[in-house]
Amino acid sequence: MTSLPEEALRQLFDDARTPKVWLDKEIEPALLLQLYNLVKLAPTSGNCQPGRFTFLTHVVSKEKLRSALSVGNVDHVLSAPVVVIVAHDPLFYEELPKLYPEVDLRSWYAEDIPFAEETAFRNSTLQGGYLILAARALGLDVWPISGFDNSMVDTLFFEEQGWHSNFIVCLGHAKQDQESERLPRLEFEDACLML
Q1: Cβ atoms of 120 and 94 closer than 8 Å
Q2: Is residue 97 part of a domain?
Q3: Between 175 and 195, residue with greater pLDDT
């Protein structure tokens, strides 16, 4: 593998900011399909792929989310062109005979529900991180949040599926005149060990 060009790295990391205001610009369904087709390639334990993604694109769907959001997040979320609920399927292991046919991984999780739940949460979080990077790679701005009532979101959106929400990602195009200084980040020596 070769390193990405500096321009691509800047788009994914250095220049990326959390939008304060969104442009009123629609995101085509084809772009969301392209986004998911990148996200599904993310590595997960035993190819378990527990992540589930609900794309709220219509004002009525987004408005349904209002009561579950923390007050400070309401305007940012509801004004975003697309809101993605990143969730996981606690019964993800039912797909393993198809996703990893070489070994009977299904029984590992079906017989140990706490292990299955931990695996689903961890790997859906990983898939959600890939969603953020894939969206940036496709030219979208991203605003991830965790300020909402998970159990309320699960009741409002996932009663039939039984999925569990993890976090929310807002997608769109930011107004370009709003760039601000990046808040401080920890230095290598403060956050890393080299053993």
Answers
A1: no
A2: yes
A3: 195
